[in-house]
Design goal:
This protein has 18 helices and 22 strands. By secondary structure, it is an alpha/beta fold. A hairpin with a 3-residue loop joins β11 and β12. It binds adenosine-5'-triphosphate and magnesium ion.
Length: about 500
């Protein structure tokens, strides 16, 4: 539970953006050595609160009391100096430097303080010791760019520990990690906590909060509505506090009538990455791809949709072989691919919600080359309502939406594209519990309407709850196939891991 010694106390914080009151009179407190969660729906104000604590935004009113001092006019530099570190989702490491250089960046050890010469030997020794203390098997000489996201996060934590941070803030650190990597992260969080560091933790995976945090502050619509002890609170209680109601059916799966095969893939190969991938998808079916991060699920989707080249294999859409050499060919063939990384591949951040939602199929909203803006706006508004998109208006630039709401725009974009085959890579990443159900309902609407849907999910519950059929991948191959009624967590885990090779 940490100690009872107060480290952070935030009172009456308000922050208004044009058109949105992001925070109203928010309070939050955390003790020395406590892991404190902040939970709330998309757009509730979690990231805004964090940005105020790191000096990235100025509050309109309110006070922050930290480590015995009242903080005034906080800037990112000042926050760092007094011991507030933040691990953002977009990591802040320098990819071409190595692990050691990144840990010491800006706080290098020099041979003689006044001369600029670095003491690399000592830094190497210290980095090795620190990594070992935290139980990490990462080579200090490895280039950051060569590590996976999970390990890069660990390096960021090391960096924060090295800078003597008293408070480490993590904004959705696990959303792009597999369950195994997330476990590693929590092991490190426990180590850091044991050193008396306080952690503020944001996640939409409520079971993670339940298993790893001491207390939770819940934000709803910019207000702090509750602070509870985790031991006295169930996941359902958390949901109720977040959304103000119960969510009875988290996976509202329907069984649509399965019809003809809409997509079939035969013997797809990409040297060293994909080996002999074959599967088919029917209209009215949800096909799930399970497996660990890096098992080849995203690569399969990228190969099918022309984002990556293939060495051999055939792709048939509605029974006819198609040559897909670019994402455009795939859109033309009626295949929509919702990518896992919205910032890199999904959205144009400075453009409006309406533009982003309709950009894949602009021509659908145009006649004689003139865009029917009225139709664009009506379609966007309708979908925004269904997805409970929280925004000041459909002309708002997408970059100013909260993370989860950006993800909803990516989904909206593809739903409006009128494709018949959908591939959703981690469709609910960063989306709150209530809005997840809306996404699942939209998937239901698609299959009822005769579309075929592929979902790639790292969350086991989700794939088991929503897919009619599940394919499991491991090291670039399909290793098992299950019907929804025969799939179990154990069977999927087994097929997704190395165990089968060993036995
Ligand atoms: N720079 C900005 N300009 C305008 N509005 C903003 C800006 N930053 C955030 N907002 C708005 O403030 C509200 C709170 O956003 P915030 O990012 O804090 O939500 P969040 O709780 O982190 O949500 P999520 O779970 O989706 O990440 C949202 O309505 C968002 O659109
Ligand atoms: Mg956020």
């Amino acid at each position: 539970m940490g100690t009872n010694q107060l480290l952070l106390k935030v009172e009456g914080i308000s922050k208004k953006f044009p058109g949105v009151q992001a925070l109203s009179m928010v309070s939050l407190e955390a003790n020395v050595g406590e892991v404190h969660a902040i939970a709330g729906e998309n757009g509730a104000g979690k990231s805004t609160l964090i940005k105020i604590l790191t000096g990235a935004h100025q509050p309109d009113s309110g006070t922050i009391f930290f480590d015995g001092h009242m903080l005034k006019d906080l800037t990112p530099r000042k926050a760092m100096q007094i011991g507030i570190a933040c691990i953002y989702q977009e990591l802040n490491l320098i990819p071409h430097l190595n692990v050691m250089e990144n840990i010491f960046l800006g706080r290098e050890i020099r041979r003689v303080e006044s001369l600029g010469i670095l003491n690399r030997a000592e830094m190497r020794t210290k980095a090795t010791a620190l990594l070992a203390e935290l139980g990490l098997s990462i080579d200090p000489a490895a280039r950051i760019g060569s590590l996976g996201v999970g390990q890069q996060q660990m390096v960021e934590i090391c960096r924060a520990v090295w800078s003597n941070a008293k408070l480490i803030i993590m904004d959705e650190p696990t959303s792009s990690l597999s369950e195994k990597e997330a476990e590693d992260l929590f092991r490190i969080v426990a180590q850091v906590k044991a050193r008396g560091v306080t952690v503020l933790f944001i996640s939409h995976r409520l079971d993670e909060i339940k298993n790893n945090c001491d207390r939770i502050t819940i934000l709803r619509d910019g207000h702090s509505v509750a602070m509870v002890d985790v031991v006295d609170t169930s996941v359902d209680d958390i949901i109720k506090l977040m959304v103000g109601r119960d969510i009875k059916n988290k996976y509202p799966k329907i069984r649509a009538r399965h019809q003809d095969v809409v997509l079939s893939v035969e013997g797809l190969n990409r040297k060293g990455i994909l080996h002999d991938i074959s599967f088919s998808l029917r209209a009215g079916e949800v096909l799930g791809f399970a497996g660990l991060v890096g098992s080849g699920r995203t690569e399969t989707a990228r190969a099918v949709t022309g984002a990556d080249p293939i060495d051999s294999g055939r792709i048939m859409v509605f029974g006819k072989e198609v040559k897909i050499r670019s994402p455009k060919d795939s859109i033309d063939a009626g295949i929509a691919f919702l990518t896992e990384d919205r910032k890199e591949q999904g959205l144009i951040l400075i453009q409006s919600v309406a533009f982003n939602s309709t950009m894949v199929k602009m021509e659908q909203y145009a006649k004689y080359g003139v865009l029917n803006l009225g139709a664009v706006r009506t379609a966007t508004r309708k979908l925004a309502r269904e997805l409970q998109l929280k925004m000041a208006g459909i002309d708002m630039p997408v970059g100013k939406l909260s993370g989860g709401n950006q993800q909803k725009v990516v989904i909206a974009k593809w739903l409006l594209s009128k494709a018949r085959i959908f591939i959703f890579d981690e469709p609910t990443r960063g989306i709150d519990v209530g809005a997840k159900v809306e996404v699942y309902k939209l998937i239901n609407d698609l299959v009822e309407d005769g579309a075929g849907v592929i979902i790639i999910c790292s969350e086991m519950d989700e794939v088991m709850g929503m897919a009619d059929r599940i394919l499991v991948m491991h090291e670039g191959r399909i290793t098992a196939e299950f019907d929804q009624n025969e799939a179990t967590q154990e069977k999927i885990m087994y097929a997704a891991s190395d165990i089968q090779k060993a036995s």
